[in-house]
Amino acid sequence: QVQLAESGGGSVKAGGSLRLSCAAPGYIIAANCLAWFRQAPGKEREGVATIRTGGEFVTYYADSVKGRFTISRDNSQDQIHLQMNDLKSEDTGIYYCAAKDMAFEPCSRFLWLSQRGAVWGQGTQVTVSP
Questions:
Q1: pLDDT for 32-73, tens place per residue?
Q2: Distances (CA, A) of 113 to 13, 47, 83, 106, 109
Q3: Read out DSSP for 41-71?
Q4: What are phi and psi of 54, to 5 degrees?
Q5: In which band, very low, low, confident or very high, does the pLDDT at 27 lie, cut at 50, 70 and 90?
Q6: Do residues 47 and 111 make contact, with C-beta atoms less than 8 angstroms apart?
């Protein structure tokens, strides 16, 4: 079932940029961690980036996107965004927004270890042409 709402996907040329948005009413307050995942054709789901909803707003990124992608929250705290720059063909896939209650664990565990109990959006397609 759809819990969150992603938008901003599309088709771009290699080297281009896209900004994904995730409407997360309630979850951005109730959930401790919000994250972006992606799944390319024929591959398993991969953690892309995560951010804590409070405190120091610590972020983590997959090695493949470091320096190119930035996860952030807007001032209203109702959405998170993923700014994607210098896109590559291998970035192609369906991008999902997810939230999980991680009160006493770092969000990195959500991104890389376990997504059990998370709520998910429906996904948005990102296609990068070579």
A1: 899 999 999 999 999 999 998 876 678 999 999 999 999 998
A2: 32, 9, 24, 11, 5
A3: TTS--EEEEEEESSTT--EEE-TTTTTTEEE
A4: -145, -170
A5: low
A6: yes
